[in-house]
Amino acid sequence: MAIELGSVQYRYAGSSTAALGPIDLRVDPGRVVGVAGANESGKTTLCLVATGLAPSVIGGRLDGVVRVDGVDAATLKPHELAQRCGMLFQHASTQLSHTTATVFEEIAFGPCNLGLAVDEVIERVWWALRVAGIEPLAARDPVRLSGGQGQLVALASVLALRPRYLILDEPTSELDPAGTRLVTEALTRIVRETGAGILLVEHKTDVLAQIADKVVVLDRGAVALSGPGAEILADPRLAGLGVESPASVRLERAVRASGLEWPAADGAEVIE
Amino acid sequence: MTAPVATPSIDLETVVFDYPDGTRALNEVSLRIEPGESVAIVGQNGSGKSTLVRQLNGLLRPTSGRVLLGGLDIRPTHVARLAGLVGLAFQNPDRQLFAGRISTEVGFGPRNLGIRGPALDERVRAALDDVGLAEEAATNPYDLGYSRRKLLALASILAMRTPVLILDEPTTGQDARGVARVRGVVARAAAEGRTVIAISHDMEFAAENFGRIVVMRGGAVIADGSPADVLAVDQAALLASTGLVPTFAARTGARMGLGRTATAASFVAALDSTGVRGGR
Fold first, then answer.
1. Do A263 and B271 make contact, defined as CB atoms within 8 angstroms?
2. Which of A40, A148, A247 shows the shortest C-beta gap to B248?
3. Of the residues A114, A205, B173, B179, which has the fewest C-beta atoms closer than 10 A?
């Protein structure tokens, strides 16, 4: 059970060069794989490939194989993929249907389209609202929410399809610190309560430091670094790959660079 | 390179701004920014930051109160005159970009200020250089990814060489190289004696690159001072009320009894003064 990319290479329709790969990657249930990398290093393309949207919906050419729980993604229909791999796009507004009057109906949109019984739809919506931490927003107008709230509604609408894996493309990039914290906490809860596997593309390495079990750094479409989160996020090669280290790592580095001892060398007490 | 005209002071006098739907976005804001100051404006989404900076170039005019640029009341001042004084790069570059070629895009602002010929070419080249897009002069703006479109929007404002430069969330969506470019732009403008005002959600970026932090909540300024004073741990409750937290350096310094250490540099200095030197 996992999303597995085996020697995957992908090129967009009309492009003569590969945007991604060759790449091998595995996302296990209950684990968070963080993805970092410079702009235009292939992070969004990786999301589209891992969800099966590329090539099945947007075209292009894929070499190698993407397997979701052992099944070749190329053989699955879009609605089958959507129930296995949910994707959250960077901007919540591109995700919301703009056809519903309340958050509740917005989140019901997906399960309704799966043809589920009404009772099941209602149960799923309340469950998704709770896990995303937004039950109080149920009666609100989805387009009149803060950025963080809107992103959580988009997340809940994906959750309501009960995917085994979640693919998130920079879910906090437009959010203020409070909104970022809401999303980070919701993801932690989702992993704990649903055992979903998460592929999280994120520029904010502080977020990855909090929740990623494993971190992969992309460079020009290929994996440049890969390993346990704490190890990769402290790697001095990050800067050369266009990735800013977490604040804790930068502070430690500044202290050592001035010839001082890092006072928290063995002290987890300063790491929040 | 120096600013073409003297950098004006900025005064907001009990500025109130109501949007047409009746929402009060600014509630009696008074603020003075001296010529050449670098100021970060922070606060949660909806706290009035973008509305505030839009008062400074005449995009929005106060419902009541006054905005003065070097003593000049901006209310009766034509937006064309303000455009030569205050450059504002939007948060979303797509609200700003329109040309089919990057060089045309960046040249548009200075052309409208009456710059022509080699002087115009030089401005375009220098601005593109500043954001690392010199190789892309002939490219269509929409062939760039979002983060580079954002740097392009910044270049098109830089090319106007206004004495006041305003950046609305310049680091959003930027990778480490993009953030470094923005940092360079801020430092150069400040070194040239221009006033730089940036809205940011990134407390580390604000603390490390600006001399003054203005904190907003609900359309009002709730704190205003140096990074060390404003982003300190003893301000944590106030900051939390507008969705912010002190920087990692400030939190760590406070826990270690080092005092107010908002930036890595001040943390290192405070640590050094405790005398625990000794290599690794």
1. yes
2. A247
3. A114
Looking at 3.40.50.300, 3.40.50.10860, 3.40.50.720, 3.20.20.300, the CATH number of the domain A3-270 comes to: 3.40.50.300
Residue ranges for chain B with pLDDT beneath 70: 1-5, 275-280
| Continuous H helices in B25-175 | 49-54, 79-83, 102-112, 117-131, 146-158
Tell me what pLDDT residue A78 has. Answer: 82
Q: Do A244 and B251 touch (CB under 8 A)?
A: no
- Please check whether residue A260 touches B, CB under 8 A: yes
Q: For chain B, how big is the Rg over CA atoms in Å?
A: 20
For every residue of B202-218, which 3-state class applies, written as one string?
Answer: CHHHHHHHCCEEEEEEC
> Which residue in A259, A260, A206 sits closest to B204, CA to CA?
A206
* DSSP secondary structure code for residue A136 in this structure: G
Residue given tokens 């949109």 in the structure block: A109
Q: Which of A1-5, A179-183, A240-244 has the lowest mean pLDDT?
A: A179-183
Contacts of B247 in chain A (CB under 8 A): 247
Cβ separation of A247 and B172 shorter than 8 Å? no
Phi, psi of B250, deg, nearest 5? -65, -45
pLDDT, residue A264, reads: 64
CB A233 within 8 A of CB A246: yes
pLDDT by residue (tens digit) across B189-221? Answer: 999 999 999 999 999 999 999 999 999 999 999
Alpha-carbon gap: B263 to the closest alpha carbon of chain A (Å): 9
Residues B161, B123 contacting (CB under 8 angstroms) = yes
Q: B92 contacts in A (CB within 8 Å)?
A: none
CA gap A117, B21 in Å, rounded: 41
For residue A35, pLDDT beyond 60: yes
Indicate the pTM of the whole model: 0.88
Distance from CA of B66 to the nearest CA of A (A): 29
- Residues near A154 by Cβ (< 8 Å), separated by ≥ 6? A88, A89, A92, A95, A96
CB contact under 8 A, B176 and A251: no
What sign results for the dihedral spanned by CA atoms A177, A179, A182, A188? negative
Q: Which residues of B touch A170 (CB under 8 A)?
A: 173
